[in-house]
Amino acid sequence: MGFDSLTRRYFIKRAGQFGAALVLGENILTRNAIAQATEKSFEQTVFPGKEKMTVLSSKPIVLEMPANGFEHFITPTDMFFVRNNIGMPVIDINKWSLAVDGEVNTTLRLSMDDIKKFKEVEAVVTLECYGNSRYFFKPKTAGNQWKKGGIGTARWKGVRLKDIIEKAGITDKSKHVVFDGADEPFAPGAPDFKRSIPIDKALDPNTLLVYEMNGMPLPVYHGYPLRALVPGWGGSAFVKWLITINISEKEFEGFYMVYKYRYPKSPVSPGTKVSPRDMTVLTELDVKSIITRPIDGEKVSSRDMTITGYAWTGEAEIKKVEVSTDLGRTWHKAKIIRNGGRYVWSLWEYKWRADRTGFYVLMSKATDTRGRMQPLHQDWNQDGYLYNVADKVGVHVV
Amino acid sequence: MKIAIIVFILTASYLTTAIFAQALQLPEGEGKEKVRSTCALCHGLEIVTSQRLSRNGWNDIVERMIKWGAPVQPEDKKVIINYLSVNFGEEKKLR
After folding, report:
1. pLDDT by residue (tens digit) across A17-38?
2. Interchain proximity B44–A34, CB inside 8 Å
3. From the CA of A379, how many Å to the nearest CA of chain B?
4. What's the complex ipTM?
5. Using CB atoms, which residue from A57, A255, A271 is nearest to B46?
6. Topology annotation, domain A288-397
7. Looking at the domain assignment, is residue B15 inside a domain?
């Protein structure tokens, strides 16, 4: 097929989808199939509804939040990061259903109306990609080169996964919950994206299946019509476009469990290759803080400044954040301005007066309620996951 | 009709963006077309051009991709690794 006919074909396809969305007056993001049609043929720099994002990859779609996204405690949806692993599906809600099968007493097939009959729950939850900040690893590791923007916080609405699983009824063999979405690989035979979480985490009342994000139906980028919300864990557990929840006796052993999203069982020296059997599937996030203002390399015209940032952790809460303005020689307690509590980032600030003009390195270091503290040097791993070194930005006081 | 026109304009401008953006070019060199034809089967090329890896690092990645199903002919493997190491090596500046 020539380029012209390809163009024409996609033009027609897109015009139809775009038109339908406009006519129905629906949130374009929820019905927008444009990006999906596009990612199969073009490398592009703009995705509808996500124009402000930095494109790390167009196939699959991977979009990083720009630095000004941190100005919002609740990340606006159009700035919320996207990390697809394979092709984004277009789902017709009238044909969609969620199957709950495997090691259960009763297999379920639920429509969206059925799901909405369960008790509705709302939660603010921070979501971070396991690979966020990969850019800062030395030596470099392969993968999407996220800086700080593979994270966001949203207000989610949905139902407890526990309520659905209990309706199906668990057995002695119900040990793991495998999420499968409607997304499909780009090439025939390439692996599907599926991932499991242990039953304990699935039955945690904070683990949800969500259909709304920031007061709107989930946009297609974020898993329309239903995604998993596994607070305190990384993005790959928040499976999107859910169609099947399979309860299993064993941890799922697919590609995205065995070859990706895996971490060495014990520390290795930088550059060491580790085989899958010496690694385990990633679970909770580690404690982390970042400085969001000033930004790295900024020229600050006043010696008085407010250093601002966020701190978050996995299965715990933030206990304290400390700031250093002298390369870690001395540390000062920052003030928590907005405590997000469990599973939500906390906003902090530290007011500081520079005693001279010139160059400074500002650092931040968080500690959580389990006593975990950000390290000053990284635990290197070959795929660049869980980077949580005390943050560092250089500023010029002029 | 009005909607049709809006749709036309939006879609046309959108497509134009897509077409121009398609110009994400790989640097010239032996292996360029092989990288384009094999790697881009399963993923976009930004993930290639945004990496900075040592020759060993690229070797690992290419081997991993072959293991995962990338259709790389044995005689092309060296050419691809060399192309990637020369153009996207650790010492190359990120754009």
Report:
1. 333 332 233 334 434 444 443 4
2. no
3. 18
4. 0.74
5. A57
6. Immunoglobulin-like (2.60.40)
7. no
